[in-house]
Amino acid sequence: MELKQEILEEINSRLQRLEEHRDDKKGGEENPYERLNHAISAVIGNSLAKELTDLRSFIQELPPQSF
To answer: Chain centroid to CA 36: how far?
Structure first.
């Protein structure tokens, strides 16, 4: 398998794992600190997913000989 395809598959795998756990509840939601932690995790997860998506797009546009 070529390097470009391996990188794209890894990025896709990470995006899939982020999506699978996007709405996971960790318990203790009645605690304000737990609600804050969940909100922060959601913001970080969304930002990370956006960065991975942008990275995937960039790699897809690279010419094959650049790897």
So the answer is: 20
Q: Which two tokens stand for residue 65?
A: 């000989």
**Is the distance from CB of 52 to CB of 11 less than 8 angstroms?**
yes
Q: How far apart are CA 22 and CA 61, in angstroms?
A: 28
30 contacts 61 by C-beta, under 8 angstroms: no
The token duo for 24 is: 């996971």
Query: Which pTM was predicted?
Result: 0.78
Cβ atoms of 45 and 22 within 8 Å: the answer is: yes
> What tens digit of pLDDT does each residue of 1-57 get?
699 999 999 999 999 999 988 777 666 567 888 888 888 988 999 999 999 999 999
The dihedral of CA 11, 17, 22, 26: what is its sign?
negative
